[in-house]
Amino acid sequence: MPVITFANAKGGAGKTTAALILATELASQGHRITILDADPQRWISHWHEISGRQRNIAVISEVSMASIQGHIRENRDTTDYFIIDLAGARDALVATAIGLSDHVMIPVQGCAMDARGAAQILELLKQLDEKAGIRIGHSVVLTRMNSMVTTRAMAAIKALLSARGVAVLDTPIGERTAFRDIFDCGGTLYSMDPAKVSNLDKARENARLFAGEVLGLLPSRKRSATGRGLFRTLRQAA
Ligand SMILES: Nc1ncnc2c1ncn2[C@@H]1O[C@H](COP(=O)(O)OP(=O)(O)O)[C@@H](O)[C@H]1O
Ligand SMILES: [Mg+2]
Fold first, then answer.
1. 3-237: CATH topology
2. Ligand 1, closest atom to CA 13?
């Protein structure tokens, strides 16, 4: 039951959207998903409330430093993938969630390329590695990509990040109506009406490729358990 966390210290990077797209895509493929909504804005909890019961998806709200590890422990037997949505912050809860993760996805808006929030998360990951020897896999996913961002510009962005040793997913998340509407309509890309949502087929294909790539990044075996020492380090790093 790997833990995939979406983190970027800046708000508006596309974390919540990417987390929900991944969760609903994996659930539609038959995987059991537990989403930990650790963002005080509660967008995913709100989505769940308007969606009604969704097959293979459980959402836990009110996630705190004190409760997060317990949520994972209590639900591990009924969960194939945990997905954590974080606030746009760099605080103790963010550090703790990252420490519990198998992979950290760092969304960065492709068009704006404001990577400062991403840099703060990369710094936190570096501290965990250097101070506690905890190495957590992580990658940048470019979000809100549109046709204005050329293939060439995209290759340049990827080259820049890879020069700093940061992996970038091959699949960017496009700027799409469906990815906005899902929060208003509830449900999934598969319960939406193609007659009402433009380019829904492209959005579904985008979600499928994104989820496939994320699954390929996960370690085949679960990382070893976390101990008290880790929590002390996380608190210091935060
Ligand atoms: N791929 C996308 N396509 C269209 N709109 C998007 C996309 N990603 C994010 N947005 C919009 O951008 C805003 C911020 O996205 P959000 O996912 O809430 O970011 P964060 O969780 O990092 O604060 C929201 O209004 C959201 O609807
Ligand atoms: Mg958010």
1. Rossmann fold (3.40.50)
2. 22
